[in-house]
Write a structure and sequence with these properties.
heterodimer; A: alpha/beta; TIM Barrel; eight-stranded parallel barrel; two-stranded antiparallel ribbon; 9 helices; B: mainly alpha; Outer Surface Protein A, domain 3; 2 domains; three-stranded antiparallel beta sheet; 11 helices; 5 strands; about 10% strand
Amino acid sequence: MAQDRFTGVGIGLRRPHLEQVAEREGHGVPFWETCPENVIGEGGRFHRMACAILDRDPILTHGLAMSVGGFDPWDKQYLHDLSDFILRTGTPWHSEHLCFTSVDGSCLHELLPIPFTREAVRHTITRVRELQSRLPVPLLLENITYYAELGAAEMDEADFISAVLEGADVGWLLDVNNVYVNALNFGFDPKEWLSRMPLDRVAQLHIAGHKRFGDITVDTHGADVIDPVIDLMQWTLSRLGRPVPVLLERDNHIPDFDELLAERTRIQYAYDATLVLTEVRHD
Amino acid sequence: MTESRTLRLQRALGSLVLDGGEAAIEADPGRVARRHGLSGSDQRSFREQVPAMMIYRELARLSLIEPLESMFPVVKALLAGARSWDGCVQAFLDARVVQSSQYRDIAPAFLGWLAATRWGQDRWPFLLELAHAEILETLVARFPDSEPLEGLHAHPGPGDLVVLDPATQVVTYAHAVHRACVEAPVPEARPTHLLAFRDGDGMARLMELTPATAALLVQAQNRPIAEAAVAVNLSDLAPVTKLLYDLRCDGAIAGFRPAP
Protein backbone atom coordinates (compact mmCIF):
# COMPACT_ATOMS: atom_id res chain seq x y z
CA MET A 1 0.00 0.00 0.00
CA ALA A 2 1.11 3.56 -0.71
CA GLN A 3 0.44 4.43 2.92
CA ASP A 4 3.19 2.03 4.01
CA ARG A 5 5.73 4.51 2.68
CA PHE A 6 4.60 6.96 5.33
CA THR A 7 5.77 6.17 8.80
CA GLY A 8 8.08 7.88 11.28
CA VAL A 9 8.47 11.62 11.72
CA GLY A 10 8.47 13.91 8.68
CA ILE A 11 8.95 17.66 8.39
CA GLY A 12 6.95 20.43 6.76
CA LEU A 13 8.86 21.52 3.67
CA ARG A 14 9.54 25.24 3.95
CA ARG A 15 11.17 27.72 1.59
CA PRO A 16 14.29 28.52 3.70
CA HIS A 17 15.36 24.86 3.55
CA LEU A 18 14.55 24.07 -0.08
CA GLU A 19 18.10 24.44 -1.36
CA GLN A 20 19.62 22.20 1.31
CA VAL A 21 16.90 19.55 0.97
CA ALA A 22 17.26 19.53 -2.81
CA GLU A 23 21.03 19.14 -2.56
CA ARG A 24 21.08 16.63 0.30
CA GLU A 25 19.46 13.45 -0.91
CA GLY A 26 20.52 11.47 2.19
CA HIS A 27 18.80 13.83 4.60
CA GLY A 28 17.18 10.98 6.55
CA VAL A 29 13.71 12.55 6.63
CA PRO A 30 11.21 9.79 5.78
CA PHE A 31 8.71 12.15 4.15
CA TRP A 32 7.87 15.81 3.70
CA GLU A 33 4.58 17.62 3.93
CA THR A 34 3.98 20.45 1.51
CA CYS A 35 1.29 23.11 1.22
CA PRO A 36 -0.06 23.03 -2.35
CA GLU A 37 -0.97 26.73 -2.16
CA ASN A 38 2.75 27.48 -1.91
CA VAL A 39 3.66 25.50 -5.02
CA ILE A 40 0.72 25.64 -7.46
CA GLY A 41 1.04 28.57 -9.86
CA GLU A 42 4.60 29.39 -8.82
CA GLY A 43 7.73 29.62 -10.92
CA GLY A 44 11.42 30.42 -10.72
CA ARG A 45 14.37 29.07 -8.80
CA PHE A 46 12.68 28.08 -5.53
CA HIS A 47 9.78 26.53 -7.38
CA ARG A 48 12.16 24.38 -9.41
CA MET A 49 13.88 23.21 -6.22
CA ALA A 50 10.53 22.41 -4.60
CA CYS A 51 9.42 20.43 -7.65
CA ALA A 52 12.70 18.49 -7.71
CA ILE A 53 12.10 17.46 -4.09
CA LEU A 54 8.44 16.61 -4.72
CA ASP A 55 9.44 14.40 -7.63
CA ARG A 56 12.18 12.65 -5.60
CA ASP A 57 10.94 12.20 -2.01
CA PRO A 58 7.74 10.84 -0.41
CA ILE A 59 5.26 13.72 -0.01
CA LEU A 60 2.05 14.37 1.92
CA THR A 61 -0.07 17.37 0.93
CA HIS A 62 -1.67 19.69 3.47
CA GLY A 63 -3.86 22.63 2.46
CA LEU A 64 -3.83 25.93 4.29
CA ALA A 65 -6.74 27.95 3.10
CA MET A 66 -9.61 25.80 1.86
CA SER A 67 -12.60 27.20 3.69
CA VAL A 68 -14.07 23.80 4.53
CA GLY A 69 -16.71 25.13 6.91
CA GLY A 70 -17.38 28.33 4.99
CA PHE A 71 -20.02 29.32 2.48
CA ASP A 72 -17.98 30.70 -0.41
CA PRO A 73 -18.08 28.64 -3.62
CA TRP A 74 -15.14 26.36 -4.30
CA ASP A 75 -12.44 27.77 -6.56
CA LYS A 76 -12.88 25.26 -9.38
CA GLN A 77 -9.62 26.14 -11.13
CA TYR A 78 -7.71 25.73 -7.89
CA LEU A 79 -9.40 22.40 -7.18
CA HIS A 80 -8.46 21.23 -10.68
CA ASP A 81 -4.86 22.31 -10.13
CA LEU A 82 -4.88 20.75 -6.66
CA SER A 83 -6.02 17.41 -8.06
CA ASP A 84 -3.22 17.47 -10.63
CA PHE A 85 -0.76 18.36 -7.88
CA ILE A 86 -1.99 15.55 -5.62
CA LEU A 87 -1.59 13.02 -8.42
CA ARG A 88 1.88 14.32 -9.25
CA THR A 89 3.09 13.95 -5.67
CA GLY A 90 1.55 10.52 -5.18
CA THR A 91 0.30 11.48 -1.72
CA PRO A 92 -2.03 8.81 -0.32
CA TRP A 93 -4.33 11.48 1.18
CA HIS A 94 -4.79 15.22 1.25
CA SER A 95 -5.55 17.16 4.43
CA GLU A 96 -7.35 20.43 5.15
CA HIS A 97 -8.27 22.23 8.35
CA LEU A 98 -11.68 21.89 10.00
CA CYS A 99 -12.37 25.62 10.02
CA PHE A 100 -13.44 28.50 7.80
CA THR A 101 -11.00 30.93 6.24
CA SER A 102 -13.11 33.18 4.06
CA VAL A 103 -16.48 34.89 4.20
CA ASP A 104 -18.38 36.67 1.40
CA GLY A 105 -15.43 36.14 -0.95
CA SER A 106 -12.95 37.80 1.38
CA CYS A 107 -10.09 35.52 2.43
CA LEU A 108 -9.00 36.14 6.02
CA HIS A 109 -5.86 33.97 5.96
CA GLU A 110 -6.53 32.67 9.45
CA LEU A 111 -7.98 29.37 10.66
CA LEU A 112 -11.29 30.50 12.17
CA PRO A 113 -13.56 28.31 14.29
CA ILE A 114 -16.82 26.90 12.98
CA PRO A 115 -19.71 27.30 15.46
CA PHE A 116 -20.20 24.21 17.61
CA THR A 117 -23.84 23.88 16.58
CA ARG A 118 -26.03 21.23 14.95
CA GLU A 119 -26.68 23.51 11.99
CA ALA A 120 -22.93 24.04 11.45
CA VAL A 121 -22.31 20.28 11.70
CA ARG A 122 -24.85 19.62 8.94
CA HIS A 123 -23.46 22.42 6.78
CA THR A 124 -19.85 21.29 7.25
CA ILE A 125 -20.66 17.65 6.51
CA THR A 126 -22.24 18.73 3.21
CA ARG A 127 -19.22 20.84 2.33
CA VAL A 128 -16.73 18.12 3.25
CA ARG A 129 -18.57 15.57 1.14
CA GLU A 130 -18.57 18.00 -1.79
CA LEU A 131 -14.86 18.59 -1.39
CA GLN A 132 -14.09 14.89 -1.06
CA SER A 133 -15.99 14.20 -4.29
CA ARG A 134 -13.67 16.62 -6.10
CA LEU A 135 -10.39 15.11 -4.86
CA PRO A 136 -8.59 12.06 -6.26
CA VAL A 137 -7.46 10.80 -2.83
CA PRO A 138 -9.09 10.49 0.61
CA LEU A 139 -9.52 13.76 2.50
CA LEU A 140 -8.36 14.18 6.08
CA LEU A 141 -9.55 16.99 8.33
CA GLU A 142 -7.29 18.54 10.96
CA ASN A 143 -8.55 19.78 14.32
CA ILE A 144 -7.50 23.40 14.83
CA THR A 145 -6.46 25.47 17.79
CA TYR A 146 -9.30 27.77 18.75
CA TYR A 147 -9.33 30.66 21.18
CA ALA A 148 -13.05 31.39 21.41
CA GLU A 149 -16.27 29.58 20.64
CA LEU A 150 -18.07 31.27 17.78
CA GLY A 151 -21.55 32.02 19.12
CA ALA A 152 -23.47 30.11 21.73
CA ALA A 153 -22.30 26.49 21.55
CA GLU A 154 -24.75 23.59 21.45
CA MET A 155 -22.03 20.98 21.94
CA ASP A 156 -18.36 20.89 22.86
CA GLU A 157 -15.43 20.73 20.45
CA ALA A 158 -14.98 16.96 20.81
CA ASP A 159 -18.59 16.27 19.88
CA PHE A 160 -18.42 18.75 17.00
CA ILE A 161 -15.29 17.18 15.48
CA SER A 162 -16.60 13.64 15.99
CA ALA A 163 -19.93 14.50 14.38
CA VAL A 164 -18.26 16.00 11.30
CA LEU A 165 -15.73 13.18 10.88
CA GLU A 166 -18.39 10.51 11.27
CA GLY A 167 -21.05 12.32 9.26
CA ALA A 168 -18.75 13.08 6.34
CA ASP A 169 -16.97 9.71 6.71
CA VAL A 170 -13.47 11.16 6.39
CA GLY A 171 -10.16 10.55 8.12
CA TRP A 172 -8.58 12.62 10.86
CA LEU A 173 -5.30 14.46 10.86
CA LEU A 174 -4.92 14.69 14.61
CA ASP A 175 -2.82 17.67 15.69
CA VAL A 176 -1.73 16.75 19.21
CA ASN A 177 -0.27 20.20 19.82
CA ASN A 178 -3.63 21.77 19.00
CA VAL A 179 -5.31 19.44 21.48
CA TYR A 180 -2.72 20.37 24.09
CA VAL A 181 -3.09 24.12 23.44
CA ASN A 182 -6.88 23.92 23.54
CA ALA A 183 -6.64 21.96 26.78
CA LEU A 184 -4.53 24.76 28.30
CA ASN A 185 -6.85 27.51 27.08
CA PHE A 186 -10.11 25.80 28.01
CA GLY A 187 -8.95 23.83 31.03
CA PHE A 188 -9.54 20.20 30.15
CA ASP A 189 -7.49 17.00 30.28
CA PRO A 190 -6.17 16.29 26.75
CA LYS A 191 -5.97 12.53 27.29
CA GLU A 192 -9.50 12.39 28.57
CA TRP A 193 -10.55 14.48 25.56
CA LEU A 194 -8.77 12.12 23.15
CA SER A 195 -10.35 9.09 24.82
CA ARG A 196 -13.74 10.37 23.67
CA MET A 197 -12.68 10.72 20.06
CA PRO A 198 -12.95 8.36 17.05
CA LEU A 199 -9.26 7.43 17.03
CA ASP A 200 -9.88 4.75 14.43
CA ARG A 201 -10.17 7.61 11.93
CA VAL A 202 -6.67 8.96 12.64
CA ALA A 203 -4.35 8.61 9.64
CA GLN A 204 -1.68 11.15 10.56
CA LEU A 205 -0.50 13.26 13.47
CA HIS A 206 0.83 16.81 13.59
CA ILE A 207 3.17 18.05 16.28
CA ALA A 208 4.51 21.58 16.82
CA GLY A 209 5.55 24.23 19.29
CA HIS A 210 3.41 26.92 20.87
CA LYS A 211 3.79 30.05 23.01
CA ARG A 212 1.92 31.61 25.90
CA PHE A 213 0.80 35.24 25.61
CA GLY A 214 -0.69 36.39 28.88
CA ASP A 215 -3.65 34.17 29.68
CA ILE A 216 -3.86 32.58 26.23
CA THR A 217 -1.57 30.03 24.61
CA VAL A 218 -1.18 30.41 20.84
CA ASP A 219 -0.30 27.71 18.34
CA THR A 220 2.67 29.58 16.87
CA HIS A 221 4.64 26.77 15.20
CA GLY A 222 7.55 28.94 16.24
CA ALA A 223 9.30 26.98 18.98
CA ASP A 224 10.64 23.53 19.80
CA VAL A 225 8.07 20.92 20.76
CA ILE A 226 7.83 20.70 24.54
CA ASP A 227 7.99 17.38 26.41
CA PRO A 228 4.31 17.28 27.47
CA VAL A 229 3.28 17.48 23.79
CA ILE A 230 5.70 14.69 22.90
CA ASP A 231 4.24 12.72 25.79
CA LEU A 232 0.75 13.30 24.35
CA MET A 233 1.98 12.12 20.94
CA GLN A 234 3.36 8.94 22.55
CA TRP A 235 0.17 8.37 24.51
CA THR A 236 -1.84 8.75 21.29
CA LEU A 237 0.41 6.42 19.29
CA SER A 238 0.16 3.89 22.05
CA ARG A 239 -3.64 4.10 22.01
CA LEU A 240 -3.67 3.82 18.22
CA GLY A 241 -1.36 0.80 18.28
CA ARG A 242 -0.20 1.49 14.72
CA PRO A 243 2.64 3.56 13.23
CA VAL A 244 0.77 6.51 11.73
CA PRO A 245 3.11 9.18 10.34
CA VAL A 246 3.88 12.20 12.51
CA LEU A 247 4.64 15.55 10.93
CA LEU A 248 6.75 18.18 12.66
CA GLU A 249 5.49 21.68 11.75
CA ARG A 250 7.69 24.76 11.98
CA ASP A 251 6.48 27.98 10.35
CA ASN A 252 7.93 30.77 12.49
CA HIS A 253 11.42 31.38 13.85
CA ILE A 254 12.47 28.66 11.44
CA PRO A 255 15.84 27.30 12.61
CA ASP A 256 18.78 26.15 10.52
CA PHE A 257 18.13 22.96 8.64
CA ASP A 258 20.49 20.91 10.81
CA GLU A 259 18.82 22.20 13.95
CA LEU A 260 15.43 21.20 12.59
CA LEU A 261 16.79 17.78 11.67
CA ALA A 262 17.99 17.37 15.26
CA GLU A 263 14.52 18.30 16.52
CA ARG A 264 13.03 15.72 14.16
CA THR A 265 15.45 13.08 15.42
CA ARG A 266 14.47 13.83 19.03
CA ILE A 267 10.81 13.24 18.17
CA GLN A 268 11.66 10.17 16.07
CA TYR A 269 13.36 8.57 19.12
CA ALA A 270 10.19 9.13 21.13
CA TYR A 271 8.12 7.73 18.25
CA ASP A 272 10.31 4.61 17.93
CA ALA A 273 10.33 4.02 21.68
CA THR A 274 6.54 4.13 21.77
CA LEU A 275 6.15 1.71 18.89
CA VAL A 276 8.60 -0.77 20.44
CA LEU A 277 6.59 -0.72 23.66
CA THR A 278 3.35 -1.08 21.69
CA GLU A 279 4.69 -4.11 19.81
CA VAL A 280 5.91 -5.71 23.03
CA ARG A 281 2.49 -5.19 24.57
CA HIS A 282 0.78 -6.73 21.53
CA ASP A 283 3.19 -9.71 21.54
CA MET B 1 -30.52 30.80 0.12
CA THR B 2 -31.77 31.98 3.50
CA GLU B 3 -29.04 33.39 5.61
CA SER B 4 -28.23 30.80 8.23
CA ARG B 5 -27.09 31.47 11.75
CA THR B 6 -23.78 29.83 10.87
CA LEU B 7 -23.22 32.31 8.05
CA ARG B 8 -24.20 35.27 10.24
CA LEU B 9 -21.75 34.12 12.91
CA GLN B 10 -18.98 33.82 10.33
CA ARG B 11 -19.79 37.28 8.96
CA ALA B 12 -19.70 38.70 12.48
CA LEU B 13 -16.25 37.23 13.10
CA GLY B 14 -15.10 38.48 9.68
CA SER B 15 -16.26 41.98 10.60
CA LEU B 16 -14.65 41.78 14.00
CA VAL B 17 -11.36 40.80 12.39
CA LEU B 18 -11.28 43.28 9.51
CA ASP B 19 -13.42 46.32 10.24
CA GLY B 20 -11.68 49.41 11.58
CA GLY B 21 -14.62 50.24 13.86
CA GLU B 22 -14.36 46.92 15.69
CA ALA B 23 -11.02 47.90 17.24
CA ALA B 24 -13.12 49.37 20.06
CA ILE B 25 -14.83 46.04 20.80
CA GLU B 26 -14.14 46.42 24.52
CA ALA B 27 -16.55 49.38 24.65
CA ASP B 28 -19.45 47.34 23.25
CA PRO B 29 -18.50 43.67 22.86
CA GLY B 30 -21.90 42.56 21.57
CA ARG B 31 -22.16 45.19 18.85
CA VAL B 32 -20.68 43.12 16.03
CA ALA B 33 -23.11 40.26 16.78
CA ARG B 34 -26.06 42.69 16.84
CA ARG B 35 -24.93 44.22 13.54
CA HIS B 36 -25.27 40.81 11.95
CA GLY B 37 -28.70 40.10 13.42
CA LEU B 38 -27.58 37.46 15.90
CA SER B 39 -29.65 36.47 18.90
CA GLY B 40 -29.11 37.38 22.52
CA SER B 41 -27.25 34.17 23.34
CA ASP B 42 -24.83 34.71 20.46
CA GLN B 43 -24.38 38.36 21.46
CA ARG B 44 -23.62 37.18 24.99
CA SER B 45 -21.04 34.74 23.62
CA PHE B 46 -19.20 37.61 21.93
CA ARG B 47 -19.46 39.75 25.07
CA GLU B 48 -18.07 37.01 27.32
CA GLN B 49 -15.05 36.20 25.15
CA VAL B 50 -13.62 39.62 24.32
CA PRO B 51 -9.90 38.85 24.98
CA ALA B 52 -10.10 35.66 22.91
CA MET B 53 -11.99 37.40 20.11
CA MET B 54 -9.29 40.05 20.03
CA ILE B 55 -6.70 37.29 19.54
CA TYR B 56 -8.44 36.45 16.26
CA ARG B 57 -8.39 40.10 15.25
CA GLU B 58 -4.66 40.28 15.97
CA LEU B 59 -3.78 36.99 14.27
CA ALA B 60 -5.78 37.55 11.10
CA ARG B 61 -4.63 41.13 10.72
CA LEU B 62 -1.04 39.98 11.29
CA SER B 63 -1.46 37.44 8.47
CA LEU B 64 -2.82 40.09 6.13
CA ILE B 65 -0.51 42.95 7.10
CA GLU B 66 2.79 41.07 7.46
CA PRO B 67 3.18 40.49 3.69
CA LEU B 68 2.50 44.19 3.09
CA GLU B 69 5.18 45.21 5.58
CA SER B 70 7.70 42.76 4.16
CA MET B 71 6.97 43.45 0.49
CA PHE B 72 6.51 47.24 0.68
CA PRO B 73 9.06 48.49 3.27
CA VAL B 74 9.69 51.76 1.40
CA VAL B 75 5.99 52.52 0.96
CA LYS B 76 5.54 51.78 4.65
CA ALA B 77 8.43 54.09 5.58
CA LEU B 78 6.98 56.85 3.40
CA LEU B 79 3.47 56.57 4.79
CA ALA B 80 4.52 55.88 8.38
CA GLY B 81 6.59 59.08 8.22
CA ALA B 82 3.34 60.92 7.52
CA ARG B 83 1.39 58.82 10.06
CA SER B 84 -0.66 57.42 7.20
CA TRP B 85 0.45 53.76 7.05
CA ASP B 86 -2.16 52.44 9.48
CA GLY B 87 -4.91 54.36 7.69
CA CYS B 88 -3.78 53.00 4.35
CA VAL B 89 -3.76 49.44 5.64
CA GLN B 90 -7.19 49.83 7.23
CA ALA B 91 -8.63 51.29 4.00
CA PHE B 92 -7.17 48.28 2.17
CA LEU B 93 -8.70 45.84 4.68
CA ASP B 94 -12.05 47.66 4.55
CA ALA B 95 -12.11 47.17 0.77
CA ARG B 96 -12.08 43.37 1.29
CA VAL B 97 -10.15 42.77 -1.91
CA VAL B 98 -8.05 39.82 -0.67
CA GLN B 99 -9.98 37.05 -2.35
CA SER B 100 -7.26 34.55 -3.13
CA SER B 101 -6.50 31.78 -0.67
CA GLN B 102 -2.86 31.97 -1.70
CA TYR B 103 -0.73 33.96 0.71
CA ARG B 104 1.53 35.24 -2.05
CA ASP B 105 -1.45 37.06 -3.63
CA ILE B 106 -1.95 39.44 -0.68
CA ALA B 107 0.77 41.90 -1.75
CA PRO B 108 -0.36 42.00 -5.41
CA ALA B 109 -3.93 42.57 -4.15
CA PHE B 110 -2.64 45.64 -2.28
CA LEU B 111 -0.98 46.89 -5.46
CA GLY B 112 -4.20 46.33 -7.43
CA TRP B 113 -6.18 48.18 -4.75
CA LEU B 114 -3.78 51.14 -4.92
CA ALA B 115 -4.20 51.22 -8.72
CA ALA B 116 -7.98 50.93 -8.57
CA THR B 117 -8.60 53.48 -5.82
CA ARG B 118 -5.65 55.86 -6.35
CA TRP B 119 -5.46 55.98 -2.52
CA GLY B 120 -2.97 58.66 -1.40
CA GLN B 121 -1.86 59.52 -4.89
CA ASP B 122 -3.01 63.12 -4.77
CA ARG B 123 -0.43 63.66 -2.06
CA TRP B 124 2.16 61.14 -3.31
CA PRO B 125 1.83 60.93 -7.12
CA PHE B 126 4.59 58.32 -7.23
CA LEU B 127 2.98 55.99 -4.66
CA LEU B 128 1.67 53.42 -7.13
CA GLU B 129 4.97 53.37 -9.05
CA LEU B 130 6.88 52.98 -5.79
CA ALA B 131 4.73 50.05 -4.69
CA HIS B 132 5.03 48.46 -8.13
CA ALA B 133 8.81 48.81 -8.13
CA GLU B 134 9.00 47.21 -4.68
CA ILE B 135 7.15 44.12 -5.79
CA LEU B 136 8.47 43.91 -9.34
CA GLU B 137 11.36 41.53 -8.72
CA THR B 138 9.20 39.20 -6.62
CA LEU B 139 6.52 39.05 -9.31
CA VAL B 140 9.16 38.22 -11.90
CA ALA B 141 10.93 35.71 -9.64
CA ARG B 142 7.68 33.83 -8.97
CA PHE B 143 6.09 34.13 -12.41
CA PRO B 144 4.58 30.72 -13.22
CA ASP B 145 6.89 28.44 -15.15
CA SER B 146 5.77 27.42 -18.63
CA GLU B 147 6.92 25.12 -21.39
CA PRO B 148 9.78 26.57 -23.50
CA LEU B 149 8.51 28.51 -26.50
CA GLU B 150 9.07 26.64 -29.76
CA GLY B 151 10.24 27.87 -33.16
CA LEU B 152 12.61 30.52 -31.83
CA HIS B 153 16.22 31.01 -32.82
CA ALA B 154 19.13 32.30 -30.81
CA HIS B 155 20.69 34.93 -33.04
CA PRO B 156 18.68 38.02 -33.96
CA GLY B 157 18.41 39.10 -37.58
CA PRO B 158 17.19 42.45 -38.94
CA GLY B 159 13.87 40.97 -40.04
CA ASP B 160 13.18 39.19 -36.74
CA LEU B 161 10.79 39.96 -33.94
CA VAL B 162 11.92 39.86 -30.31
CA VAL B 163 10.12 37.34 -28.11
CA LEU B 164 10.55 38.16 -24.43
CA ASP B 165 10.68 35.43 -21.82
CA PRO B 166 7.15 35.17 -20.34
CA ALA B 167 8.44 36.33 -16.92
CA THR B 168 10.19 39.42 -18.32
CA GLN B 169 8.75 42.90 -17.77
CA VAL B 170 9.81 46.19 -19.38
CA VAL B 171 8.52 48.99 -17.16
CA THR B 172 8.63 52.77 -17.36
CA TYR B 173 8.16 54.99 -14.32
CA ALA B 174 7.96 58.79 -14.09
CA HIS B 175 10.13 58.64 -10.99
CA ALA B 176 13.35 56.84 -10.08
CA VAL B 177 11.40 54.66 -7.67
CA HIS B 178 13.92 51.83 -7.79
CA ARG B 179 16.42 54.17 -6.08
CA ALA B 180 14.10 54.99 -3.19
CA CYS B 181 14.89 53.34 0.14
CA VAL B 182 13.56 53.23 3.68
CA GLU B 183 15.88 56.07 4.69
CA ALA B 184 14.94 58.21 1.64
CA PRO B 185 11.54 57.02 0.44
CA VAL B 186 10.71 60.00 -1.80
CA PRO B 187 12.03 59.26 -5.31
CA GLU B 188 13.53 61.74 -7.72
CA ALA B 189 11.13 62.83 -10.50
CA ARG B 190 13.03 61.37 -13.45
CA PRO B 191 11.74 59.07 -16.21
CA THR B 192 13.09 55.60 -15.48
CA HIS B 193 13.07 52.47 -17.62
CA LEU B 194 13.69 49.05 -16.09
CA LEU B 195 14.03 45.54 -17.40
CA ALA B 196 13.09 42.86 -14.87
CA PHE B 197 13.77 39.27 -15.84
CA ARG B 198 14.81 35.83 -14.61
CA ASP B 199 18.32 34.62 -15.27
CA GLY B 200 19.29 31.06 -16.13
CA ASP B 201 19.18 30.07 -12.44
CA GLY B 202 15.63 31.36 -12.15
CA MET B 203 16.65 34.36 -10.02
CA ALA B 204 15.16 37.80 -10.66
CA ARG B 205 17.44 40.52 -12.01
CA LEU B 206 16.81 44.21 -12.53
CA MET B 207 18.53 46.29 -15.22
CA GLU B 208 18.14 50.01 -15.85
CA LEU B 209 17.64 50.77 -19.55
CA THR B 210 18.15 53.84 -21.66
CA PRO B 211 14.93 55.28 -23.10
CA ALA B 212 15.95 54.09 -26.57
CA THR B 213 16.67 50.53 -25.44
CA ALA B 214 13.39 50.34 -23.55
CA ALA B 215 11.51 51.58 -26.61
CA LEU B 216 13.38 49.12 -28.83
CA LEU B 217 12.44 46.16 -26.61
CA VAL B 218 8.79 47.19 -26.69
CA GLN B 219 8.60 47.97 -30.42
CA ALA B 220 10.66 45.03 -31.67
CA GLN B 221 8.09 42.62 -30.27
CA ASN B 222 5.67 43.77 -33.00
CA ARG B 223 7.86 45.01 -35.87
CA PRO B 224 11.18 43.84 -37.35
CA ILE B 225 14.25 44.67 -35.28
CA ALA B 226 15.80 46.83 -38.05
CA GLU B 227 12.59 48.84 -38.41
CA ALA B 228 12.19 49.22 -34.64
CA ALA B 229 15.83 50.37 -34.30
CA VAL B 230 15.32 53.11 -36.90
CA ALA B 231 12.10 54.18 -35.16
CA VAL B 232 13.98 54.75 -31.89
CA ASN B 233 16.97 56.43 -33.59
CA LEU B 234 19.40 53.55 -33.20
CA SER B 235 20.94 53.73 -36.65
CA ASP B 236 23.83 51.26 -36.13
CA LEU B 237 22.28 47.76 -36.12
CA ALA B 238 25.39 45.82 -35.00
CA PRO B 239 25.34 46.97 -31.35
CA VAL B 240 21.57 46.52 -31.31
CA THR B 241 21.74 42.86 -32.34
CA LYS B 242 24.68 42.32 -29.97
CA LEU B 243 22.59 43.73 -27.08
CA LEU B 244 19.59 41.61 -28.00
CA TYR B 245 21.74 38.49 -28.24
CA ASP B 246 23.25 39.22 -24.81
CA LEU B 247 19.78 39.68 -23.32
CA ARG B 248 18.79 36.32 -24.73
CA CYS B 249 21.85 34.74 -23.11
CA ASP B 250 20.93 36.45 -19.82
CA GLY B 251 17.39 35.06 -19.95
CA ALA B 252 15.38 38.25 -20.57
CA ILE B 253 14.64 37.35 -24.18
CA ALA B 254 13.30 33.89 -25.02
CA GLY B 255 14.51 34.13 -28.63
CA PHE B 256 13.75 35.53 -32.05
CA ARG B 257 11.39 34.62 -34.85
CA PRO B 258 10.93 35.99 -38.34
CA ALA B 259 8.40 38.80 -38.64
CA PRO B 260 5.33 37.67 -40.61
